[in-house]
Amino acid sequence: KQVEGWLNSNVTALAASPDETTIYVGLNTGIVLTIDVASGEVTNSAQVGSVDSGVASANEAVRSMAVSGDGSKISVAFQRTVSLWSLPNWTLLHSGTNDWHNIEQVVFDSYENFVIAVAFNEVQKLNVSSGEFTLIDTLFGDANFSTLSNDGSKFVTFSPYEGLFQVVKSQTGDVMAEFPAVPGPNLLGVLSPDGTKLATWEKNSYLRVRDLQTNTTLLDRQGLANSYKPMIFTNDNEILVTRNEDGSLRMLNVIADLHLGNIESAHKEPQMVAITPDGSKVIHGYCDGTIAVLESLTGRLLMTLGQDNSTDRLHGERAFHSLVVSNDGSKLITAGDLPGINTWSLTTGELIYAYKGEEAHCTALTVIPKTQRLAVTTVDANIFVWDLNEHSIYKHFHRTKDSVVRVILATPNGSQLVVLTDINEIEIWGIENRSLWRTIKTKSSSLSTMVMTADGKYVITSGAYDETKTWDLKTGHYVSSIEKAKRGVSSLAIANDRLILAGRRTEITIFDLKSSVALRNVGNRKLNTRSVAISGDGSSLAVVGDHGFSLMTVGGAGVVGSAGACGRGSYWDPLSGGCLVACPAGLYQDSLHGLCTPYCPRGYFGDSSSGLCVSKCGQGSYGEQLSSKCIPTCPDRTWVLKTGDQLQCVAKCPEPMFASMSDKTCVNKCEEGTLLSLDDRTCRLDCADGSMQDPHGEMCVTSCPEGSATYKLSYKCETSEWCARTNEPEVCMETCGKLFSSSLRFTYSMILIGI
């Protein structure tokens, strides 16, 4: 049975009742949960380690627990304290401390008269009846404690630098047996429950199991994965379970020296993360080559893709360096350090197509907007554009430089590719003509990540030892800097004028791109961040690191997957970490997800008067898309979009509408006396710099149509019919070609009337 995790808490200790009907879960907050095995329900929550209980000076983490043979008592250990409680009502019987350091384990002795407690360099026993503590032994030299036998009669110590394991009698401290080992760190010794067998993990990946009664070696293996913790015997004393490097568990029969198989981990460490444009699905790419597709709101596993290819990869090769979702959210494209690019269906989970060959041995990839094409950079420094429908190469770019591409992006209009190389240069390529337009020499030292603004005008770069900088793609000039993360930058994400900067250790900072001001710094102690991804609407941020995964709201960085813990009519508050009936000022009640959030979901707006996320703002206010709030007036560079009786402020009018520069509204047809600019879909009184009127004075164009040209310094394109009537016809005739065709004019007319 799988039991869901607990909000903002780590599981630090486990124990079970003798009849195996109850599990006790110790948390890093000092709480012990009681779980019924049959139902998986939490039946009790006891705040054991706290100032109120008198057991600890603060809410300390539970380090070890042990249940008595009759199930009536439980001993709970903290860093310096051992306590004894009666079950099931959790009444404190005894508690004591002796300035210990790092208590490792507690168990009841075979007669259950004492609780044996082993700390970093000493062993003590707690009298169950009187509550008195007695020092049993002080461990020698630099010895470290490993584990106690189930009956508490023996424990193992090891000395990393002397290279020695010792089996010690708990009651007297007498050494019962000792075994030499190669000196070095990462030694571990584990006793079987009956204390008759000793399993040791030694330097150079040696795993040995010894029979302490016959002094014989039962198992001797070398070359297993370096991840050895935890190691534990099953209760029949025959099977040793230890951990593989990929997070699965290895089972070894120590009597027959047989590898019985592996148990796949319920939680593997994700390497990469992606999120669908609508934010409904989160995709994890794991180190073993498998892919998990999760429902973002609940964390429910929807499907698993791929297969374990860890044996095919050399040490250090990544299973994934790219997870890219198609524009419509229906396909997932994956690539790693091994040759090959796979396209998966996010609807059925099927492998649609596998691209093979050297042209599919890629270093980075991206989906080109408004197309079904994929841009790929290869290890031999070339660029390929693949057609995802035809599964064929559409374009092939020959780069002359030997530099390796780390990141590739495509502009929103699908006309250009922007790549970041390992020599810290930015290259801009035209897709149709396959030409290099510009190279930006950043003069940086360690750039590893790059994102593009929504308008395609700027890119933002960062790395481990460099500032986060903005670059103008049109001019190639440096624009501005954002403060450098304290421990380097591992990943960037961008949406809705919000830049997410993920540090290599703890920092996840949200910046406002317009002001370059940090809106929020989200500390995440659990994650050494590897990868971040953001939904298309900018509402959800997915983060993966060494120890897990978080899904956050961009404003408050609350864990979205925990929202369902609040009952109906209450809302999860990411700032206080609790369920509230009313959200604090500045946050809005999102009934769809059960959240208090500063950014309402797509299609909803925060109404400050009611504190709710509403689909329609009140009379006299406008729903602004960028901030997802109801505001009294639309800001500059936005237009009013009227849909029924709903008014919204939009940064760009939806097609086929146009933005009227005169009254700041979205219109279906440009009003008389204005010029249509197809470049930015606006209705203008005058053409912008770099464009001019067409021959009929109806549109703004960047170049004259065939059969027309500008005359001298005029900003109006004139036909050759007009040229013949000028004072200098020979000049105009040299530049004018064929007559301006009626078919082309008919096409322009159709655009103007909205067809």
Description:
With 755 residues, the chain is mainly beta. It has three helices and 69 strands. It is elongated, with a radius of gyration of 33 Å. The two termini are 60 Å apart.
Shape field: elongated
Strand elements, count: 69
Let me know the average pLDDT.
75
> What fraction of the residues are assigned to beta strands by DSSP?
over 45%
**Secondary structural class:** mainly beta
Poorly predicted runs are 523-527, 555-565, 724-755
Oligomer: single chain
Sketch the major β-sheet: 6 strands, mixed
Q: Order the strands across the largest sheet as they lie in space.
A: 63-62-65-64-67-66
- Number of helical segments? 3
- Radius of gyration, whole Å: 33 Å
What is the first-to-last residue Cα distance?
A: 60 Å
The percent of residues in helical segments reads: under 10%
Write a concise keyword list for the protein shown above.
mainly beta; 755 residues; disordered C terminus; single chain; 3 helices
Topology:
Blueprint: E1 11-16, E2 22-27, E3 31-36, E4 42-47, E5 64-67, E6 73-77, E7 81-86, E8 91-97, E9 105-108, E10 114-118, E11 122-127, E12 133-138, E13 144-148, E14 154-159, E15 164-169, E16 175-180, E17 188-191, E18 197-202, E19 206-211, E20 216-222, E21 232-233, E22 239-243, E23 249-253, E24 258-263, E25 270-275, E26 281-286, E27 290-295, E28 301-306, E29 322-325, E30 331-335, E31 341-345, E32 351-355, E33 362-368, E34 373-378, E35 383-387, E36 392-397, E37 405-410, E38 416-421, E39 425-430, E40 436-441, E41 447-452, E42 458-463, E43 468-472, E44 478-482, E45 489-495, E46 498-503, E47 507-512, E48 517-523, E49 529-534, E50 540-545, E51 548-553, E52 571-573, E53 578-580, E54 588-590, E55 595-597, E56 605-607, E57 612-614, E58 622-624, E59 629-631, E60 639-643, E61 646-650, E62 658-660, E63 665-667, E64 675-677, E65 682-684, E66 692-693, E67 699-701, E68 708-710, E69 717-719, H1 720-723, H2 729-735, H3 742-752
Parallel strand pairs: 58-61, 62-65, 64-67
Antiparallel strand pairs: 1-2, 2-3, 3-4, 5-6, 6-7, 7-8, 9-10, 10-11, 11-12, 13-14, 14-15, 15-16, 17-18, 18-19, 19-20, 21-22, 22-23, 23-24, 25-26, 26-27, 27-28, 29-30, 30-31, 31-32, 33-34, 34-35, 35-36, 37-38, 38-39, 39-40, 41-42, 42-43, 43-44, 45-46, 46-47, 47-48, 49-50, 50-51, 52-53, 54-55, ...
